Amino acid sequence: MTESGGPPAGPHAGTGHDDATSPAVATPVGEPLVVLSGVDKHFGSLHVLQDINLTVGRGEVVVVLGPSGSGKSTLCRAINRLETIEGGTITIDGQPLPEEGKALAGLRADVGMVFQSFNLFAHKTVLENVTLGPVKVRRTNAAEARRRGMEILQRVGVDSQAEKYPAQLSGGQQQRVAIARALAMDPKVILFDEPTSALDPEMVNEVLDVMVSLARQGMTMVVVTHEMGFARKAANRVVFMADGQIVEEAPPETFFTAPRSARAQDFLSKILTH
Ligand SMILES: Nc1ncnc2c1ncn2[C@@H]1O[C@H](COP(=O)(O)OP(=O)(O)O)[C@@H](O)[C@H]1O
Ligand SMILES: [Mg+2]
What are the start and end residues of every segment in region (Disordered) (predicted)? Predict the structure, then answer.
């Protein structure tokens, strides 16, 4: 895949409607799928998200970069409504985020999330971790959920671990199970919050490889990561955050070679010297 070209058309490409009223701030790859408009949030006196405008197109891969404490995790959590917002709007596929109940469970299925700390159910097997959501939320029958679950575990390379418990797996394997669990819901978008930061270095690539292949298959992804190799290989766009604001956004090559803002230049000089 070229860095300037978009990923291949996803399964839903071309089936939606143009939404000329969406307040897109950058050119998305497909039609707008995730749209944040004027999003504001405080934690007490801390203005953690300040007038965030971000449109993620269907099939687009957006990497979010920025110093610790800049609001990256809060941004992801807001898209999944793990955090509420005080101002602005967030829509997924044109629908505002539901507030509670079944609709909220449905949203969390449509918007997968992969955390730094895996967050698997410790008392359930790998396969049960992957089938639970489809059975409970999507009402898939158990046999079908197991069949699909095995298929997805195979896709991320951990099908041979299906009957084990998370603690019996390496960190890299656990994170691939967490990705499989998100995929099993057939999500519209997957949010990744520093998915490789808790891994031993030798396990980082096995997880990034899965993510790169998802990107190439047209999955819409928002990825908080400092892995520049991943950004260069898979991202359509890099969004740089600092102090609760989106300071800069650009294609990865442009961002890494010619960052415009002093904040981004300073941030890159720090991560590049490691
Ligand atoms: N639940 C919370 N209550 C109060 N402050 C929080 C909470 N979650 C995050 N923060 C603060 O909000 C800021 C942004 O946090 P976060 O979104 O986790 O940043 P990042 O992921 O970029 O490191 C930090 O200063 C953090 O301490
Ligand atoms: Mg964070």
Answer: 1-25
